[in-house]
Each structure stands twice: as C-alpha cells, then as structure tokens.
Here is the input.
Amino acid sequence: MNVPVTSDVFQRLAKDCPSFHGEKEAGTRNWALAMPTLQWIASNLPKDAATLETGCGYSTVTFAASSGQHTVISPFAGEHDLIRKWCERNDMSTSHVRFYAQSSVDVLPGLEPSPLDMVLVDGAHEFPVPSIDWYYTADRVRKGGIMIIDDVQIPTGYVLMDFLQMERGRWEQVHTIGRTCFFKKLTSEPVARGISFVDQPWCLMDLSMKGRIKQKFRKMLGIAK
Here is the structure.
C-alpha cells in the first residue's frame, strides 16, 4: 500500500534528499522539482489517475504515490533503479509504474494512446524535444486534464509555454510555480494532430510580436539587450 502523499512521502523526501540523477553515474545529482510543485501535482490528481512524465526524479515518487497508473520515460536505467529502491525502502509500491529507459522521442510515438489525466514534460531540453513530448501526449490528455511544462527558463520550454498561452479554447494556464507552468485542457477535440497552422494563433504572429517575446524572455533571464 502506498504511503499517503500529503504526509509521509514529502517528509521523507525532504529528510533523505535522495539523489537520483547523473548521466554517467546515477545518484550523483539532484534535479528535483520544487516541493510546492510536487505538492500541487499530488493535490490536483483525481483518484486512480493515469499519468505520464518525460524525465524522472522526485516527481516519479510523487506520481507513484498518488496515481493509479504512471509511465516514466527517460534514458537512464540507473536512475530508475535508484527510484525503485528508494520507494521500496519507504514501503511504496511501484508495481503500477512503467519505466522506459529510452529517449522519449523513440518511445512516445509507439505507446498505446490511452487517456491521461496529467502529463509532465521535463525530459530532454534540447530543441525540439519538449515540443515533441507535448505533441505525442497532448491529444491523450482528457478534457480537464493537466499538461505541465517545466524549465520554462530554457528557450525550448519557454517557446512551448508561450505557444500554449495563446491556444485559446484549447488550453488555459491555471497555475505557475517558479519555472513550472500548469495548463488545463479545455476540450475533448484534437489539440495537436490535424490542426492547421492558420488555426494556431502563435503561428500567425508577425515578426515584431516574436521580437517582443524574445525581449520578454531575455528580460526574464536578466540578459542585456
């Protein structure tokens, strides 16, 4: 049986501060989401939610403790092993968690397109991977479900955030915590595949508008003109 998320899990993570990351040697780094972000995720999931994330870490522990079915996609098997072992030591089941130790761009196109209640895009940040992660999961999110974009301080995350902010009638930004943005899906209709660029407001911006977006991003990072 899973430990209650709102009590023991976060307390144990805060106390242990486990390190799950490190490309060459897993467990040497900690790139965890902020605790308020993890708490928001846990408190906004419906019962027996189906969830998916690209990337892994404390978010995986949170989803494992609060989802009915969870999918984790990141290329480092050693990190997955550390997460499993930490959960086992803390009496948390991961039997309902599927781990894919591959790149999301290779895994996502072949997954069964079953409905999802929440998706966290927090895997590879090089262009255009975050947008690919969104593309192959967006139509799977149920109406009312949540798409989370992390690391919007990086251009690839920022562009995806900016695109979703302009998707009137399809997505609504419902919350922001630091570098993480939360979008609620407003429709059961397709939002990614089969949408013409002329129906995407972001694609119809003139170049002067794109320049203002660039200036806004640079200001956010404190970069001089």
Notes: The CA atoms of residues 28 and 116 lie 32 Å apart. Residues 5-221 form a domain with the Rossmann fold fold (CATH 3.40.50.150). Strands lie at 50-54, 69-73, 97-100, 116-121, 141-149, 171-177, 180-185. The chain has eight helices and seven strands.
